[in-house]
Amino acid sequence: MSDKAELRAGLAEFLRGGEKTFEFTTDCALPERVAYIHSVLFPGYKVALFYLRFVLARLAQLTDYSPLKVLLYRLLGFRIGRGVFLSPGVFLDPHFPELLELGDACIIGQEAILSCHEYSGWLYRLGRVKIGSGAVVGHGAVIMPGSEIPPMACLPMRAIVTKNSSTENLYDFSEKYR
Fold first, then answer.
1. Best CA proximity match to 100, nearest among 123, 116, 81, 118
2. CATH number (domain holding residue 11)
3. pLDDT tens, residue by residue, 41-99
């Protein structure tokens, strides 16, 4: 089995299972990195489906009317609960929509980015992102792969949350709304 075949098998297992993250290194020359990543994640015709999904996600991002934006993202495969409000400019990562889950009645602030993938140097990482029911993600916040925001929490504007972030700086709205 080739290295790419092993990576694809690991990716398929990750997408089926409950692991929070999946990562691999891109052991190739700099000019070949994007092609290598695409050959692992989106082999063959799947790269065309990815680009179609990306274009549709970009249209959703540019849509200011939240119910229409939510509908477009749901059609792409994102798991979005009832009563979710997506402000203008919110970006939900289209790489693997099934990795992102927004609980009921959460609010995602303007220009927030919820990313299920990252690439840093030679390491490519995918991760599940979960925003709990009733949570608020502030304006311009960035949620990185493998991150989880608890229910009824409020993430301040411009915050960056990684898979290893503490939840100490989150406001807890749960007592106020009980």
1. 116
2. 2.160.10
3. 999 999 999 999 999 999 999 999 889 999 999 999 999 999 999 999 999 999 999 99
Is residue 34 one of the residues assigned to a domain? yes
pLDDT tens column, 123-151:
999 999 999 999 999 999 999 999 999 99
Structural domain contains residue 47: yes
Instruction: Tell me if 178 is assigned to some domain.
Output: no
Range of the domain at 70: 3-172
Phi, psi values for residue 87, rounded to 5° = -70, 165
- CA neighbor of 35 nearest in space, from 47, 23, 22, 25: 47
pLDDT on residue 37: 93
First to last CA, the chain: 55
CA distance 15 to 56: 22
Tell me how many domains the chain contains. Answer: 1
pTM: 0.89
Phi/psi zone of residue 158: left (φ > 0), alpha (ψ -120 to 50 degrees), beta? left
Q: Is the residue at 177 inside a domain?
A: no
Report which secondary-structure segment, H or E, holds 123. Answer: strand 123-127
Distance (Å) of CA 118 to CA 40, 50, 163 = 15, 16, 12
pLDDT, residue 169, reads 59
